[in-house]
Every structure is written in C-alpha cells, then in structure tokens.
Amino acid sequence: MQRVLSGIQPSGIPTIGNYLGAIRQWVALQDTHECLFCIVDLHAITSFQDPAKLRAQTLEMAATLLACGIDPARSALFAQSAVHAHVRLGWIFNCIARLGWLNRMTQFKDKAGKDREAASAGLYVYPNLMAADIAAYRATRVPVGDDQRQHLELANDICEKFNHDYGVDFFPRIEPLILGEAARVMSLRDGTRKMSKSDPSDQSRINLTDDADAIAQKIRRARTDPAPLPSEPAGLAERPEARNLVDIYAGMAGTDAAAVLAEHGGRGFGAFKDALAGLLVARLAPITAETTRLLADEAHLREVLAGGAAQARALADPIVAHVERLVGFLA
Ligand code: AQP
What we know:
By secondary structure, the protein is mainly alpha-helical. It is built from 13 helices and five strands. It has helices at 16-29, 41-44, 51-68, 85-96, 99-103, 106-112, 121-135, 149-165, 212-221, 240-253, 257-264, 269-295, 298-327; strands spanning 3-8, 34-39, 75-79, 141-143, 175-177. Adenosine-5'-tetraphosphate binds at residues 7-9, 11-12, 15, 17-18, 20-22, 40, 144-145, 147-148, 183-185, 194-198.
C-alpha cells in the first residue's frame, strides 16, 4: 500500500475549498492507501494565532474531519506539534533548501502581501516544514489542492538534494494527487483569488459549518457577471466567477462542468444560484450535524488525536533518527 500524508491548518473553519481540494479525496483514499492526516498547527502559527482560538480550532478541525468521514480506525489523525519528528527533519531541510528556491514560492508572495519584511521567518520556510511533514514518513502520495503543486515540487527538490548530498537513495519521489473538477475553488467575492478559511471576509467562502440560511445568502450575493450561463465550458473563458460557481456545482454533484452546463446553460444566474445553494445545503447538512455532535465530547476528540499521534510517532521516529545518523549527529 502506498503511504499518503496530507495536512490542513487549524486556522479557521474548513471551507468547501478545503473540502473539494483535499478532504473529500482524503476520505476516499482511506480505502486504497495507508493514510496519515495531520492538523498542522506548527504551520498555522506562521501567522499569529490567538492561543485559546488555536486550541479550539484544532479540536474543531478534528471534529470536522471526522464528520467528513476520516476514520481513526483506518487512518492516523493527529496534531503536527505532537510529533516532534516533523520539526527535527524540518530543521535539517532548512539547511538543505536554497534561498533561491524559496524566493520562487508564489504562496509566500500571496500571503506575505506588500509588506514582506514584516512576514515571519516561519512563513518563508513553511515549504521546508511541509516537505519534512511528508518525508518524515517517506510518504509517496500527497492529496492536495492545485494551490499546493509548487510546494510539492520544492519538496521533491529538497529530498533529491538530500539524497545527493549524503550519497543515499533514502527519500522516495513524492507524487501529488490533484483530483476533481474543483481542484482550486475561488473566492465568492473575487474569482481570481482562492477561497481561504482565513480570508477576513466571511462572505468570500462557504464554511463546512454554515447553516442553510448562511449558504443561501452567500451564494445569492456571490459575484457574477450579467451574461447568462453558457451551454459549454469554452464559454466560461474570461469569466472566472461564473467558472467558479459551475466548478463548485460540479465538484459537489460529482460531475463535470460540461454536464452542469448541459443542464443549466442558457439560464440566468438567479435560478442557477438557487440550485447551487440547494445542492450545498443537502451535502453539508449531515457534516454540520455530526461536527456539532462530536464537539460536545472534547475528551473523545483529544483521545482520537492522542491515538493518532502515537501511531505517527511510531512511523516517523525511526525514519528521522536514521536521517540524523546520515547527517552525522551522534544518535
Ligand atoms: N480554495 C481552495 N481550493 C482547493 N483546495 C484548497 N485547499 C485550500 N484552499 C483551497 C487545500 O486544502 C488543504 C489544506 O490547506 P491548508 O489549511 O493547509 O492551507 P491553505 O492551502 O492555505 O488553505 P486555506 O483555506 O487558504 O487556509 P489559510 O486561510 O489558513 O491559508 C490543502 O491541500 C490545500 O491545497
């Protein structure tokens, strides 16, 4: 069985972007792969997090992932900070990665914004820690949204350079698993920016815990253009907001843009938005209800995370100890 590792930041309530780009694939991969799912709190603090909120969001993230179908009997679900192997390997990778490589990372540019000098050093080296998250398990498959493709290429560069520098063939190649029609879900307010759980505007996203009223209102207000929907995907070129809504519909319905347009093409956005809101409510209602139920039992959530961390440590500790010996530490 191939080993899968993927992570998500407890930096807010997960959105349908996280769901369609990542979580949905995670759930399916449990049938065919050995899976480790990590709530990456070390990554989250690359931007300041209120400590009480971070604790609450880590538990909320665990509850939401379980509600979506992550099964702790089959997969290790844990908080990144509970497995120190990530940080030990992350430091070694900081010493392998080149500044020139990091300078090319578009996500750093996006997240740091105009005032780059004020961004944390952690945000800059974030991709090195992400590479360590994967390599600490010698995982070969990483299901991520399209936005993370560049970071995975960097992870492979780091692993290859490590193998080369130390004359070993230790780290295997990592393959991204980028699936589905809505691999990159865009903001409801701006079709050129990705939907993010930490976007200051709650109107820009659908959270997995939004109720029916919130979903209907956000979709109704989602930015669109005045033309009706085209009848074929080619007609969505240069119409990022329209494309985004069609892709979300396709992702949620488990179909593709062509099929959605065959059904809804030629209609105005009013009717299409009603149909999309109805679909989202139907898909998200069971997840929201189960998340609420799980959040009522914090002790159980902590137990699940502790069990997952123990499983993860058993896999990662020997791998990282071996790497430390390769590097020349007195281990
Ligand atoms: N808009 C998106 N479309 C498709 N996939 C997405 N992912 C995130 N946003 C989208 C995928 O979700 C997984 C977890 O992401 P993350 O929490 O590690 O960080 P992120 O990519 O930075 O996600 P957010 O929601 O934008 O978080 P914040 O706001 O905290 O920065 C990844 O697999 C990602 O591809």
